[in-house]
């Protein structure tokens, strides 16, 4: 605690403004427990960039941690691209302080001689990714904490391809940031280098989104849609995108349509949480809608609910959505005679294997990377000779084509509506099409458990859980022997039955995946952006006819619950 207090006292110097000094002094004087959490570490880049609670301190999002990150990025850009007029695009979401934080970041960049393109108002994250390429920028930054609670904000960095930073850039930028003192941040803005952007980029993005996300689907106006932005940025683009694409029967959840960083109508503005879409589903039942779509605050994730075989609204998970989207996209390529064995789709190590089965059935390769869309964007960069069809991950994100290099709820909303409208026009439904996909391949059922462990003690507990899972591996799950243990930290795939070891050709990450002889998979992964450890479960079985879907799903659900009980989770 003495060391933490010494760290905190550094923030009482003239380097920091009066308001910050007063906040820290009050914490020191009151001997607050909060002081330790604010200073026990520096804010770090995870799978989604830098994300944390707002407030003063090295482990908080504030003027100085953002300023230091931006100064480090500026220094790095100048080393990478010497003697060049550098350009960076900046976007921000609906969160508290996002407007002032985005201007602060613009100030630091401009103070370092960098041309800044700053969105005039809140915009979806995928539009920032698009803008980096559209405006020929060297980097991009978005101020967002995605679906985290209201007290959070964050900072994501994009490279000149429009994808989030990946190795080696991320480590090199962090090294630049860590080498700096807070006193070295240049806050002396050069307003001449800051240009506001908006309508022109919106128009270009709408056109590209409609071009990539719509196909030759009939009767779009017959599809009845309920849409909610969950108080976030998607309200600025998605209703207009739907209208321009020909979807005129759209009902917007008005109570959630106004951007608001408090997210007053939901416990969590996360479309992965069923509760977040309750108001939208209530409206859907009132107007007899075919599909419900809800997006998170920065509009990169989307949640979908559709009518099941009994006509009831059923929430789909990210694995189900990405599987059907992938199948639909590949079919469009096939129908146009564009498949020649040189295409691929992208997925992640904790996402469903149904995507792999679907792609294989068309002779299309599935490239699998670590969790996070930056790895799917990297695939596009690493394999320029191959054509990218689309890609997704289980956490409710999908990317259509390569014009955006991050998960994109705007274009994915159009794609979901195309699937639903096409199915309806052909006497089917979104859900029936999904069940037919199970019949053709396997019925996969996934489940996610997140265990929250906050603070310094929580981080130590999560670390110990991973150590235990590595050193004392499970040998069976629900009566099936564990055949393989994939350890992405050591890059070793071990056959627990024969003892044979092979190397894994994926960047190192603190992830473990158990795979049994019957195809069951359980993955353990500490979150890179939140104080939690996640367990991903995947089970499968054959489905002979869609009429047996309910009983098959019930059996798979029961299997997952038995495994959870076995693992004491």
Describe this structure as you would to a colleague.
Belongs to the phosphohexose mutase family. This is Phosphoglucomutase. Its cofactor is Mg(2+). This protein is α/β, with parallel strands linked by helices. It has four domains: 1-37; 41-197, 3-Layer(aba) Sandwich (Alpha-D-Glucose-1,6-Bisphosphate, Chain A, domain 3), CATH 3.40.120; 204-440, Alpha-D-Glucose-1,6-Bisphosphate, Chain A, domain 3 (3-Layer(aba) Sandwich), CATH 3.40.120.10; 443-566, TATA-Binding Protein, CATH 3.30.310. It has 17 helices and 24 strands. Strands 17, 18, 19, 20, 21, 22, 23 and 24 form an eight-stranded antiparallel beta sheet that branches. The protein has a seven-stranded mixed beta sheet with strand order 1-2-6-5-3-4-7, with helices on both faces. Helix 4 runs parallel beside helix 5. The two termini are 33 Å apart. The model has no long low-confidence stretch (mean pLDDT 96).
* Estimated radius of gyration: 24 Å
Mean pLDDT: 96
Largest sheet geometry:
8 strands, antiparallel
CATH topology of the largest domain: Alpha-D-Glucose-1,6-Bisphosphate, Chain A, domain 3
| Record field, number of beta strands | 24
What is the approximate shape?
globular
Span of the ends, CA to CA: 33 Å
**What is the strand content?**
15-25%
Q: What is the fourth-level CATH superfamily of the largest domain? A: Alpha-D-Glucose-1,6-Bisphosphate, subunit A, domain 3
Helix content: 25-40%
Whole-number tally of structural domains: 4
Q: In CATH, what is the class of the largest domain? A: Alpha Beta
Q: What is the oligomer described by this structure?
A: single chain
Low-confidence stretches: none
The helix/strand class is alpha/beta
- How many H/I helices? 17
CATH second-level architecture of the largest domain = 3-Layer(aba) Sandwich
Keywords: Isomerase, Magnesium, Metal-binding, Phosphoprotein
GO molecular function: magnesium ion binding; phosphopentomutase activity
Domain Alpha-D-phosphohexomutase alpha/beta/alpha: 43-182, 216-305, 317-438
Pfam family, one: PGM_PMM_III
């Amino acid at each position: 605690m003495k060391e933490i207090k010494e760290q905190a006292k550094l923030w009482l110097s003239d380097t920091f403004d009066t308001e910050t000094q007063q906040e820290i002094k009050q914490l020191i004087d009151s001997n607050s427990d909060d002081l330790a959490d604010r200073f026990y570490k520096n804010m770090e880049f995870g799978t989604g960039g830098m994300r944390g609670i707002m407030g003063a301190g090295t482990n908080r999002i504030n003027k100085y941690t953002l300023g230091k990150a931006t100064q480090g990025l500026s220094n790095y850009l100048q080393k990478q691209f010497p003697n060049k007029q550098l350009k960076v695009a900046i976007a921000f979401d609906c969160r508290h302080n996002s407007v002032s934080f985005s201007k602060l970041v613009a100030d630091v960049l401009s103070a370092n001689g960098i041309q800044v393109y700053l969105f005039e108002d809140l915009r979806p994250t995928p539009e920032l990714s698009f803008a980096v390429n559209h405006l020929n920028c060297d980097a991009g930054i978005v101020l967002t904490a995605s679906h985290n609670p209201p007290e959070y904000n964050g900072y994501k960095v994009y490279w000149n391809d429009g994808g989030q930073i990946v190795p080696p850039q991320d480590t090199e930028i962090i090294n630049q940031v860590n080498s700096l003192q807070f006193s070295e941040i240049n806050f002396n803005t050069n307003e001449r280098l800051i240009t506001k952007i908006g309508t022109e980029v919106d128009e270009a993005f709408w056109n590209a989104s409609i071009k990539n996300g719509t196909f030759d689907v009939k009767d779009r106006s017959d599809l009845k849609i309920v849409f909610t932005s969950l108080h976030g940025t998607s309200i600025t683009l998605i209703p207009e995108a739907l209208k321009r694409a020909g979807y005129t029967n759209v009902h917007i959840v008005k109570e959630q349509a106004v951007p608001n960083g408090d997210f007053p109508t939901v416990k969590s503005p996360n479309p992965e949480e069923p509760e977040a879409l309750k108001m939208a589903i209530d409206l859907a039942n009132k107007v007899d809608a075919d599909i419900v779509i809800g997006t998170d605050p920065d509009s990169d994730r989307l949640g979908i609910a559709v009518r099941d075989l009994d006509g009831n609204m059923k929430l789909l998970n990210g694995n189900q959505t990405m599987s059907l989207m992938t199948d639909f996209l590949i079919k469009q390529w096939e129908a146009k005679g564009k498949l020649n064995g040189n295409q691929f789709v992208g997925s992640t190590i904790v996402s469903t294997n149904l995507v792999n089965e679907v792609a294989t059935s068309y002779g299309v390769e599935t490239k699998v990377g670590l969790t996070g869309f930056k790895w799917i964007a990297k695939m596009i960069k690493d394999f320029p000779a191959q054509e990218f069809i689309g890609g997704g991950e289980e956490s409710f994100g999908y990317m259509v084509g390569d014009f955006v290099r991050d998960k994109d709820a705007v274009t994915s909303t159009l794609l979901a509506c195309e699937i639903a409208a096409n199915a309806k026009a052909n006497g089917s439904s979104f859900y029936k099409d999904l069940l037919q996909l199970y019949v053709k391949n396997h019925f996969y059922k996934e489940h996610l458990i997140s265990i929250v462990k906050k603070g310094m003690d929580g981080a130590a507990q999560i670390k110990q859980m991973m150590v235990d899972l590595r050193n004392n591996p499970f040998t069976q799950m629900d009566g099936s022997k564990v055949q393989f243990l994939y350890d992405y930290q050591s890059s070793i795939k071990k056959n627990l039955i024969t003892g044979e070891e092979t190397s894994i050709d994926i960047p190192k990450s603190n992830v473990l995946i158990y795979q049994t002889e019957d195809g069951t998979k359980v993955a353990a992964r500490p979150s890179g952006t939140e104080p939690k450890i996640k367990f991903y479960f995947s089970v499968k079985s054959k489905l002979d006819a869609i009429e047996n879907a309910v009983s098959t799903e019930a059996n798979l659900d029961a299997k997952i619950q038995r495994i959870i009980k076995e693992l004491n989770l």
